[in-house]
Amino acid sequence: MKKWMIVGVVALVLAVVAGCGEKKYEAVPINEEVDVCAICKMQIKDDAYATQLTTKDGKNYKFDDIGCMNEWKTQNGTDNIGMDFVRDYNDKEWIEFSAATYVYDASIRTPMAYGIVSFKDKKSAEAFIAEQGVGQLMSADDLAKHTWTQNTDGMNMGGMEHNHSAEGGMEHGQNAGDGMGHSPDAEGGMENGHGAQGHTET
What we know:
By secondary structure, this protein is of the alpha+beta class. Helix content is 24%, strand content 18%. A four-stranded antiparallel β-sheet has the order 2-1-3-4. Strands 6-5-7 form a three-stranded antiparallel β-sheet. A hairpin with a 5-residue loop joins strand 8 (162-164) and strand 9 (170-172). Residues 156-202 have low confidence and may be disordered.
């Protein structure tokens, strides 16, 4: 066998081995009975605000709000993250963090009042902004430069109740944005066009 053929075969084998060695990361289901946020220790609802990440060594961390996931990254860095996921606001489909489109406005109600919701595509995000009449379109790169502040008027002063659960975690009481005068409709949507629903007990 000619030398160039041997080199080609060896290169092909190495490429196959390397490809087989690539680790696949997948989002895991939310279990409302036991899952609590890795940062704020609140109960995680199986809703559009839940996020999660898996480290390269296989540890999974779940969060009730994208702001809590950002706080985890701030505390722990991002070098060991294998993959991070957010959810599409409309159908709760898991999306890779870097591939999602985001909408931010301080009046958007989210569990920990960071005011950011995620979408699988730009069109859906733009439709949300048009419907609600508020919101700034953002990408994952934009979030890296975002000032992560909580709307404390809508969270603590708005009457959010924290109840200890049997598992030692905490559960959400009222919505984070109740103090802003917004009420969710029966389908979990929003009234008066100013923000997404926070957590409610079921």
